[in-house]
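Changelog-adjacent note: as of this version, every example in the card shows the full chain rather than a window. The one below runs 438 residues end to end.
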Amino acid sequence: MWVSGRRSARKDYTIWLLPADYDAPAPFVERIYVFDPQGKVASLLEEVALRKVELLSSLSELPAGAKVVVVVGESSGGEEEISSLLERGGVAVFIEPSGELPALPGKLRPRRAEGKLGRAWLAGLKHPLVDGLWEEALRDWGGVGREVARLYLPREGTPVGRRDLVVAGTASDPAGLSLLSEFLVGQGKAIVCCLRVVELLGEHPPATRLLWDMLRLAQRAPLKPARVAEVMGPGGEERDGPYEAGLRVDWISSPEVLTRKAYDLLIVGSGVDWEALSGWRDRVREFVEDGGTALIFLPEEPIFADGFLPWALRAERAKAEGALKVDPEEPLLWGMTDIDLSEAFDGLPCFVDLAEHYRPLVLASTAQVQGPFGLLGLRPLPRAGWLVECRYGAGRYILCSAPLDAFWERSKGARRVLSALLANLGVSAKWQEGVRQG
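Full-length structure tokens:
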């Protein structure tokens, strides 16, 4: 239980000392439209900034020029209006939603938790949405022994544009439930909060702080989604695999069209002619040097690497275990839990003894040593990792030590890692009915 301004002898109290402005209201820059049939969130917002808040009796009333909408509880209708808002760069905030979420890819619908959810933890330290939270606060959400959420989103979500920032689990899927998610859709974004917030406003400082953080993020400058190019296969075909289904991408077969004026991100995935890519080296280097990002999924034997990358990897490959984040606050790893990383990478070949220009983002702690008669054991690894960053000029290369198709099909954890990685690179989902769920 949270105690403010008084002492208590109760042993079941958890007492946190917080800054005086910890749950201070967010500044209201944009007009905020609120659909809240119960009225508690709307009342608080009106109390803080009456002239900047407009209540809706129906989502169909959302005006064409709206930039921020807050939807509390069950939402009915409004898909066309919210789709239009997202496509033009607006933000939709869903708080404890109980119905289908309009305008999000994959027709997502929160589910009701049966019994109390287990431990919840953060998967995006220093992300603006959770900068005011910490895991002990989630443990004691609303008071010792009380539930952190009654609803959750399954983490099978859309393949691109999603990052889950507060995660819980079940015995069969320890990281399978999202309690706070961010979706990049069109030119805008949607925030989905399943944590118990409404009934705790004004009573539980982290719940109030979370509301203000959602509104702070919603009123930032409009999102500029990454403009994405992906290399075609040698036959000039465009892939229509499950991860591309929701991806806004231009397929390119020549390095001549790859410029920073046209694109922000280059993806080199599966089904490409790796030896022919050595002819792309100079143009890709210029693209990265000018501030672009090259995301490269390597084949099992990356024989092309020294002819394609700015510096030789000089790394052997070894199957490894023990995936963990180098830095829990690394923005490229927002939305990924340790469980996701282990499911995604454990047992795959990783880079060992990387050259100095290459920084591991996801470390491997031990490698499998093979002898003539099979596995001999495990050994510690120097400078080893599966996901690696190489800074070059104003941009960067990001290398994943697995082919894209094999990585996507590997596990739920791998699909969650890929979805979060693309979102962290600014890749926005396109709205498409029937997008394959993870």
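Structural remarks: The two ends are 37 Å apart (CA to CA).
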